[in-house]
Design brief:
Length: about 400
């Protein structure tokens, strides 16, 4: 595999999606990129407006209203991601340029293998997350396609009418119940586009973040390998001094890039955590309602939605945990360096590395809540506790 092929492999998990929605960092200021971005934002805002109007009509049952609120929450998260990724495009461009440089100059051996390991992980997880969300959207759209024989019985005073029942992908049936057939198909196509747009913005930016985070993890792994190589192969003090200076500079650059990534996504993570908490609460209520109504298909939809919410949170938690642990391990590798063979002036550089590693990188939501595997466990515990209490309330 050539270097260009390796770079294409590492970037194809996110480049096309971010380009499509107009937030690819290397296209800053281009007219067509801004046009695509404006169309994407318009679609997201129209989705939120349509669902909000459906709630205001107050013609759906409790389960449908909970679905509308959940969709509004997910669309709001997608809108937040698009806006903040576009706002912090210069920070993300620095990471992308650094990734291009890293793949262009890496040599064969353990360093390339470390980078490829994290690139494969990012590609596999990203593809699964994105395609699974797309599959859910396609299933929703296919489920709402009207059949020629579909009818619904509705009560109207003292008699029953048989009406043609045509659903739309967003289930906003009250707004378009009297629409003509051409208008109905126009609305159906528009709402299908809206759903695909929500997935592109929400899951697409998740994949973009995960790929960037995994690349930084790969570079921290490379840094550990470089420290070991210097300790084992470089014996001349002058050469060691120059190599250590390069490694300290690389460590500082990696921490700066990780800080840029955190600066871009900390508000996004805060909004996402709020949305996920709301989703879990709504899904808990919906599951209990569906269990009483004995609707297994709707129950399955709720469980899949819950899995999507928790899977998205785990994606960020896993990335935060890896970045934190690898940045901390750099200090341990520096501690194992044969500093006693160096002069006091040179060994002081290692001391600075160890001191900096004692305060490892932390991925945060809103700069106050650390996002890692431990926080993911806390969310799971809180979710199960909430569901247990809610079930007792419903039973009473």
């Amino acid at each position: 595999m050539s270097r260009n092929d390796e770079l294409a492999y590492a970037s194809r998990g996110y480049k096309f999606v971010t380009w499509l929605i107009g937030v690819w960092p290397l296209e800053d200021g281009r007219v067509f990129s801004n046009i695509r971005f404006a169309v994407v934002v318009m679609l997201l805002v129209s989705t939120i407006s349509c669902l909000g109007l459906e709630i205001l009509t107050n013609c759906g049952n409790s389960s449908e209203i909970l679905e509308y609120i959940g969709l509004i929450s997910g669309t709001t998260a997608g809108l937040t991601k698009v806006l903040f990724v576009k706002l912090h495009r210069s920070d993300l461009a620095s990471i992308v340029y650094s990734a291009i440089k890293d793949w262009s100059y890496v040599e064969k051996g353990s360093r390339k293998e470390a980078m490829l390991k994290y690139a494969r992980r990012a590609y596999t997880v990203g593809r699964f997350h994105f395609y699974f969300d797309m599959l859910i959207v396609i299933t929703i759209i296919m489920d709402t396609l009207p059949s020629s024989d579909s009818v619904r019985s509705t009560s109207n005073g003292t008699f029953i009418e048989e009406l043609k029942f045509r659903e739309t992908p967003l289930r906003t049936n009250c707004l378009f119940v009297n629409a003509s057939t051409p208008i109905y198909w126009l609305v159906f196509s528009w709402q299908s586009l809206q759903l695909f747009n929500v997935v592109l913005c929400d899951a697409g930016n998740d994949v973009f973040f995960f790929c960037m985070a995994m690349h930084l993890c790969g570079q921290f792994e490379v840094l550990k390998i470089l420290y070991s190589e210097v300790a084992e192969t470089t014996k001349d003090e002058t050469s060691r001094k120059e190599r250590l200076r390069e490694l300290v500079g690389k460590h500082s650059r990696l921490l700066e890039l990780a800080a840029r990534l955190e600066r871009t996504f900390n508000v996004i993570l805060l909004v996402m955590l709020g949305n996920n908490a709301l989703h879990i609460c709504l899904l808990g209520v919906q599951v209990l309602v569906v269990l009483k109504m004995n609707e297994p298909i709707t129950l399955m939809k709720c469980l899949i939605a819950c899995a999507l919410v928790l899977g998205q949170l785990f994606l960020y938690s896993y990335a935060g945990e890896n970045l934190s642990s690898l940045s901390e391990e750099v200090g341990r590798v520096a501690y194992g360096f044969p500093w006693y063979e160096l002069s006091s002036k040179i060994s002081r550089n290692l001391l600075y590395v160890m001191m900096r590693a004692n305060a490892p990188f932390r991925l945060t939501a809103g700069r106050f809540y650390t996002v890692n595997i431990e926080s993911f466990k806390e969310v799971l515990k809180a979710s199960f506790s909430y569901f247990s209490v809610l079930r007792l309330v419903f039973d009473e």
